[in-house]
Design goal:
Layout (H helix, E strand, L loop, with lengths): L6 E17 L2 E13 L2 H7 L3 H10 L4 E5 L3 E11 L6 E18 L12 E9 L2 H9 L4 E8 L9
Antiparallel strand pairs: 1-2, 1-7, 2-6, 3-5, 4-5, 4-7, 5-6
Length: about 160
């Protein structure tokens, strides 16, 4: 992922799961979250790898589904849901300061006859367990996430 291409986007929370592992008598808890949205060229450039080729193949009809590793992508995620409208609307929000990308699964539109439907993508991220995030998922269904994507590691300078 190029350092210069950091983007902000919104996605729907598709699924969340708690992953636990016992390592030398220590319980390690992580959360995995899947976020769904439209797959567009800006997102393809941001996540890098073969994503631009996968997007072109999905749009061209040569591919129905493609999996893209996004382990070089970090995300700051704001989980948000609003109840009510107007000035008395309540906003329930939790910030996940750093989530690590795992994989992205892009799919072609279900109705291939409609050229106006864009491909969709599910971005999977993992982050340390927090009670605040777990409680937010327990309270809310159908929330959305505001995501800031950035590179996990800058490219190392070549020695001359």
């Amino acid at each position: 992922m190029p350092k210069s291409l950091e983007i902000e986007l919104q996605a729907n929370v598709k699924k969340v799961e708690l992953v636990t592992k016992l390592d030398k008598s220590v319980v390690i808890r992580r959360m995995r979250m899947r976020l769904e949205r439209e797959f567009d060229p800006l997102l393809a450039r941001a996540i890098g790898g073969d994503s631009a080729d996968v997007l072109a193949a999905l749009k061209g009809g040569g591919l129905e589904k493609g999996v893209i590793p996004i382990d070089e992508v970090l995300a700051r995620i704001a989980l948000t849901i609003s109840s009510g409208t107007g000035p008395k609307a309540a906003k329930d929000e939790v910030i996940i300061p750093m989530a690590v990308g795992r994989k992205a699964t892009a799919t072609a539109p279900k109705d291939s006859d409609d050229d106006y439907l864009p491909p969709s993508i599910i971005l999977e991220f993992e982050f340390p367990f927090t009670e605040a995030a777990w409680a937010w998922f327990g309270r809310n269904t159908g929330g959305y996430a505001e995501i800031e994507l950035s590179a996990a590691q800058l490219k190392l300078a070549k020695a001359s």
